[in-house]
């Protein structure tokens, strides 16, 4: 039996993608470094399906139709490079290698260029949706060598989640590392969404878990309709074996795998103010300092804590979410310009509309905004989002103010509001900052009464020189 595609790596995501492909009529070859996993898979979940197994890579490659399509679902980093090194001698020019793991986009760019030189078509495909998505329809963000896309398009769009109008949540993203870059930003936005929901939960404390479950169920019927709001309502309602809320038993220490950090670092490198995702990452870091927090709590008295008006919290959550996505799309716009990726932001919003962790009704509005104006500088100047932010401003300010007065840490709600106030300000106090830089370091400044691009230096004390520092921006 010859296979349409081969997949290496039979952990949870790999197994479920193989089953998904087989369900959609594709014959799949499967391989795992621990070969006993192949046999267990074939005898178990894959039994009776169009799935064939291999016990070594040569046999595996021999099962594939030309051009051979090989998908890696292995741990990011060295394991990807190790498999590529083993596979390349077995492949021919025009064969396709696909990395479907959570690889960092510079690694994908490097692999794309190295394999292009050898005639192998490399794709880096970001995949979101977890175990359930892999099995029944994930969001897939493919990038890399565009010559490979026609050969995998039917498979990827066949197994991907579908939006409400039936469109697949998968489309070509761009060359090189573009696919994994978009997946990285998706994960950063996911960090932001989750932290915002946690802050809303913190503001509602004092209500019972069952009351909070009902509030989130109600929110999920409005503009906040999303997978994360839906599962949060279910989490609040889940009871432990003793009949008490399970959430109350879970330690308040958050883990992370690094994709949110990558997004924040990339934003700093590109000079983009991705403040909300940065704060979401730092909030997880702060949560990890459990013992220090417990000790500090003994030294400071907390203000009285009472639940904040739930509608104010809802509006603050919605407005902050708009800010998070606006920042994420601004970052992608900058990356697209710098890498000449020509990213289609409406298409990206559609890819995230179903299957992925951040899937939501809200993304349909983002798609509409970029379909109307593909060159939109920011979601904040789109008429729909402008109206929504304006509607939410009074409650947003009230919620953030109340949180501060009650000593509730709101890093993402607060930074969202600060970013908004900065972004809508025609004038910021950065003129003073630039004067300070010129005072101590002769770094120069521009003037409001002169054209942009002309730089000036002042001898502020009368004792300095007239020589200025070279002008540059990091």
Describe, in short, the structure shown.
The protein is α/β, with parallel strands linked by helices and 474 residues long. The chain is 52% helix and 7% strand. It has an eight-stranded mixed sheet, sandwiched between helices.
Query: Helix count, per DSSP?
Result: 19
- Indicate the structural class: alpha/beta
Largest sheet: 8 strands, mixed
Question: What is the CA-atom radius of gyration, in angstroms?
Answer: 25 Å
Query: Low-confidence stretches at least 5 residues in length (pLDDT < 50)?
Result: none
Into which percent range does the helicity of residues fall? Answer: 40-55%
Lateral arrangement of strands in the main beta sheet: 3-2-1-4-5-6-7-8
Quaternary structure classification: single chain
